[in-house]
Design a protein that fits this description.
Number of strands: 15
Helix content: 25-40%
Shape: elongated
CATH topology of the largest domain: Rossmann fold
CATH class of the largest domain: Alpha Beta
Number of helices: 15
CATH architecture of the largest domain: 3-Layer(aba) Sandwich
Oligomer: single chain
Structural class: alpha/beta
């Protein structure tokens, strides 16, 4: 696209965590949009108008969800003035956006307007009226048919930014044409969150390694005692069916053979290692050393690794060892390592291994749906143009 002297409207994902002082605690999502932002500016755009959401203000103005801290931080990262506007639509906002001397403008939180999540067309048209070309670089919201991801594309010529393109490239290749052996690691609390991923990737991968809270529902479905560990009772039959499907496809679906257990989920709790069966009253909080060894063995020859969901309660240091050991091991392999968003990306950052992974997805729900094989509305809207 010819960007010179054009007004570019760009959807970014600046949904970053803030502390009680409204200070950004992790700016990864902002930094990952910089290549697209800098490219647009280098190509001589007349104006770059950025829009994003932050949190879930439910269609109301909530000061703690303002994007004002993001504007200040972006200004530091860019080394160029960023004009922050206190709304995202309206004639006055349009006038300010186009008349301000700053080349970069950041609009206020889109979700202060209920019309954003409703994909309301009048609201989308108001957003579109701010620019001449639309760039979507917000993979984290690509699974949502919102006004700023889908609606705007009905009114403006639209393309993907570099971050969105990178997400499609890595996650798409992992699903469609992975280097083999292709090993999938799934964790996190719930089986229900990963059903679609397992069903879609089971026929395509060589092995699935399961840990985290979801593992105990699988173990229980096999008749293994899980003590007081996390259980989705209504998913027992489904877990059993997925294990049978893996056997029918002759695919390895590996569950923990030992666990780190406690009496209560508390960082100060005394830990112990137990085998596959978890005693009554005990709660499993991490995979054990035997499981770590088996998982490493299955990863050793992998050419593609996709990981979504931690293997224990990694936020509490005593229960983070399994997740950390496997991540550090993957960092030593000559494999394409793709880390799903959300908690898994947070764990990589916590262990300072981000630069050792091939790709870290910026989308939690979006990366899950992509790995499930679903069409994401924000991407489909672009490919339709």
């Amino acid at each position: 696209m010819d960007l010179k002297d054009r007004i570019i409207l760009m959807r970014a994902d600046f949904n970053v965590p803030l502390d009680s002082n409204l200070t950004i605690t992790d700016d990864t999502r902002i930094r990952l949009t910089l290549p697209t932002i800098k490219y647009i500016l280098q190509k001589g755009c007349k104006k770059l108008i950025l829009m994003s959401h932050l949190g879930r203000p439910d269609g109301k103005r909530v000061d703690t969800y303002s994007l004002k801290p993001v504007a200040a931080h972006l200004q530091v990262l860019l080394g160029e003035s960023v004009k922050f506007l206190d709304d995202c639509v309206g004639e006055e906002i349009k006038k300010q956006a186009l008349s301000t001397p700053e080349r970069v403008v950041l609009l206020e939180n889109l979700r202060f307007h209920a019309e954003e999540e409703l994909n309301e067309d009048v609201f989308a048209a108001q957003l579109a009226s701010l620019g001449e070309l639309f760039v979507n670089d917000a993979f984290g919201t690509a699974h949502r048919a919102h006004a700023s991801t889908v609606g705007v594309t009905r009114h403006l010529k639209s393309v993907a930014g570099f971050l969105l393109e990178k997400e499609i490239q890595y996650l798409g290749n992992a699903v469609q044409s992975p280097g083999r052996p292709f090993v999938v690691i799934l964790g996190g609390a719930k089986v229900s969150d990963k059903i679609g991923v397992i069903e879609n990737l089971l026929p395509k991968c060589d092995a699935i390694l399961i840990g985290g809270g979801m593992a105990y529902t699988f173990l229980k479905s096999k008749g293994v005692a899980i003590g007081n560990s996390k259980l989705e009772k209504d998913k027992l039959e489904l877990a059993k069916n997925l294990l049978e499907k893996a056997r029918a496809l002759n695919k390895a679906l590996l569950l923990p053979v030992d666990h780190i257990v406690v009496d209560s989920v508390d960082p100060a709790a005394k830990t112990s290692v137990v085998g596959e069966s978890i005693p009554d009253g005990k709660i499993a909080v991490d995979i054990g050393p035997g499981t770590v060894a088996i998982f490493k063995e299955n990863l050793s020859a992998a050419k593609t690794i996709v990981w979504n969901g931690p293997l224990g309660i990694f936020e509490m240091p005593p229960f983070s060892k399994g997740t950390e050991e496997i991540m550090r091991y993957i960092a030593t392999l000559k494999a394409t390592s793709i880390i799903g968003g959300g908690d898994t990306a947070a764990a990589v950052a916590q262990f300072k291994l981000a630069d050792k992974m091939t790709h870290i997805s910026t989308g939690g729900g979006a990366s899950l749906e992509f790995l499930e094989g679903k069409a994401l509305p924000g991407i489909t809207a672009l490919s339709d143009k």
